[in-house]
Design a protein that fits this description.
By secondary structure, this protein is an alpha/beta fold. It folds into two domains: 2-77 and 153-230, Rossmann fold; 88-151, no CATH class. Helices cover 38% and strands 26% of the residues. It contains eleven helices and ten strands. It has helices at 40-47, 70-75, 93-100, 104-108, 110-120, 122-126, 137-149, 167-182, 194-200, 218-222, 225-230, and strands spanning 2-11, 14-24, 29-33, 55-60, 63-64, 78-81, 155-159, 186-190, 203-208, 211-217. α3 runs parallel beside α7 (137-149). The longest helix is centred in the last third of the chain and has 16 residues, at 167-182.
Amino acid sequence: MLRVDNIDVWYGKVQVLHQISIEVREGEIVAIVGSNGAGKTTTLRTISGLLHPRKGEIYFLAKACHRLEAHKIVSMGLIHIPEGRKIFPSLTVEENLELGSYSKEAKKERYDTMEEVFGLFPVLKERKRQKAGTLSGGEQQMLSIGRALMSKPKLLMIDEPSLGLAPVITENIFQTIREINQSGTTILLVEQNVFASLNMAHRGYVVENGVIVLEGESKQLLTDEGIRRAYLGI
């Protein structure tokens, strides 16, 4: 469904990603894990068109997208939930959700999709007239996910969904991600909580200093001694 082939990405004169290659198959949850500054977020930003690789190629549904603008990639069904949620705090919950149905196809089904989002997150329906900036951190993350679902994603990229959230809220968010995947949406997940993300994912990639150092089935990665020492404290 998604194929990233040997991309090199730079910020100015500094190279951040070195020959990154990733594959995501339809129906999977694939996790990208690693420490802060490893290049995880840059990878997602490049896939979604916010950055462009200096070398390498990216294909979504067999179509090259590494030179496309971000809004055109959204219209293909590849949706990015950024780190830090990035909601519009002065707008209501409902208005934030409506902005998610930006594309022509998503707009046609806006209100049916919104009811699906409210079914997934009942608290958002209760607070649909409330300013988004007054929501709790967990509710804002729900809104960020809900807004992305309004775009009718075929593949949903989620960057650090547990950032700043209490453990019990994090578990609820992860359970929701599982449900979204089970309903047919493919997931590419970036998350610092290595154990939780690999435990949920089908496959994973470990990134260090802009390079993929390990990849494989999640169960295999969880038993890797290097990962257990470096990321799980075991």
